[in-house]
Amino acid sequence: MSSEGWSADLPRVTAIVVAYNTPEPWLRHAVTALTTSEKVDVDVVLVDNGGVDDAATELSRDPRVKLVRPGRNTGFAGGCNAGAEFATGDYIAFIGDDAVVEPSTLARLIEELQTPDIGIAAASMRLSENPELLNSRGNQIHVLGLSWVGGLGEPETRTSPSNTAGAMGAGIVMSRAHWERLGGFFDHYFAGYEDADLALRTWRIGLRVVSVPDAPIVHRYVFQAHPGKYFRTERNRIIFVTTLWSPRALFLLAPGLIGLELCMIALSVKQGWFGDKVNAWKDVWQNRQSIIARRRVVRREQTVPDRVWMRMLTARLDTPLLKEIRVPQPVVGTLNAIAGAYWSLVRRLV
Predict the structure, then answer these.
(1) What are the distances in angstroms from CA 337 to CA 262, 295, 344?
(2) Beta 41-48 vs 147-149: how paired, if at all?
(3) Crossing angle for the helix pair 254-271 and 229-244, nearest 10 degrees?
(4) What is the chain's mean pLDDT, rounded?
(5) Closest C-alpha among 127, 115, 102, 75 to residue 236
(6) 163 Cβ contact partners less than 8 Å away, ≥ 6 residues apart
(7) What gap in Å lies between CA 176 and CA 231, rounded to an integer?
(8) Is 245 helix (H, G, I), strand (E, B) or coil?
(9) Could you give the CA distance from residue 290 to residue 273 in angstroms, rounded to a whole number?
(10) In angstroms, what CA-CA distances link 86 with 67, 68, 274?
């Protein structure tokens, strides 16, 4: 939609959908649901990262849908950045290509953004196989840089918005001014951790990230160990921590960070993806100059002391993925006790 076509009475929001090899029915549902949203004036920027040619072309026949084709797979981070360049709304929504918004969801999230100290409003992400259960009520972020969905498989019992350290990139809304202030996602993440990065940078400039329980999005959530998954997860976790954690925090948390690296090495050997782990280190080293430059950028924009924003982090590992990799519960309990005690000791020194 052109700026001339906006309604003068409704909040104007541009929804960015990045598609890559998306099953046609899900992509169609995702885009159609956005265009039928209530109490907002919405246009959709559909970024075709590959594998959705016919469906994307057909969907773009709707004048409210603008099709962007970068010509290569730019990943979720790069795709969102490419799509946001065409945003004309006062608000930007990032919605997954396999995520279906309820008619009132965008309007409810924008309503929450009217609170001056809120920078990002996140939807209550629901599992497609049972929308009564959560996919995420906001993502948790560990002091050592791990991140996972909060409340996976639990019922939504909240009655009011709650603060969250991170938010799933498949269902977030912010003002375009906030997006532009932070400069968007870091392209080098490609896919994974870009949403955690943006959320913590929001906290670091004195704004909150909230998850809104009565703004549901149904999401086809599948954790798949596809090629490159472990490589990007490990590489991005290292980039995430080394760019956002202060030198003092890195020093104080060094025992835990080293211990985590050793654990991930052992796990990668056991599960057969040690090569991905090595390649993650190589990539970080080869791109160290751009990572250092990125660190300077995010440190300059920070206005809140580390000891304040790092209160949003958790020292407790309660990701359900621990069960998938068969970590014994007594081991998890011991690790949580040690990490909790250590973090309570050093966090006031950060």
Answers:
(1) 19, 31, 11
(2) unpaired
(3) 170
(4) 94
(5) 75
(6) 138, 208, 209, 210, 211, 312
(7) 32
(8) coil
(9) 26
(10) 10, 9, 40
Residue that the structure tokens 């497609």 belong to: 128
Q: H or E segment at 348?
A: none
Number of residues assigned to the chain: 350
Q: Average pLDDT of 227-245?
A: 94
Q: What pLDDT does 330 receive?
A: 82
Give the distance from CA 217 to its chain's centroid. 15
Tell me the percentage of the chain whose pLDDT exceeds 90: 87
User: pLDDT tens for residues 167-194?
Assistant: 999 999 999 999 999 999 999 999 999 9
The DSSP bridge pattern shows strands 162-163 and 139-141 to be unpaired
Q: Flag whether pLDDT at 95 surpasses 80.
A: yes
Per residue in 13-60, pLDDT (tens digit) is 999 999 999 999 999 999 999 999 999 999 999 999 999 989 999 999
- Quick one: 341 exposed, middle or buried, by C-beta within 10 A (0-12, 13-18, 19+)? exposed
pLDDT of residue 349: 93
Rounded Cα gap, residues 95 and 113, in angstroms? 17
pTM of the model: 0.94
Take residue 134 and report the two structure tokens written for it. Answer: 């959560």
The token pair at 63 is 């004048």
- pLDDT category at 245 given cuts 50, 70, 90 is very high
Strands 208-219 and 118-127: parallel
Q: Apex CA 122: angle with CA 235 and CA 99, to 5°?
A: 80
Show the CA angle centred on residue 341, arms to residues 335 and 258, nearest 5°: 55
Could you tell me the two tokens for 219?
């999401």
Tokens 């160290």 label which residue? 288
- Nearest-CA neighbor of 252 among 319, 337, 344? 344
**For residues 215-238, b (16+ Cβ closer than 10 Å) or e, as one string?**
bbbbbbbeeeeeeeebbbbbbbbb
Alpha carbons 238 and 280: distance in angstroms, whole number: 9
Q: Is the dihedral of CA 46, 168, 283, 324 positive or negative?
A: negative
For range 94-108, the mean pLDDT: 98
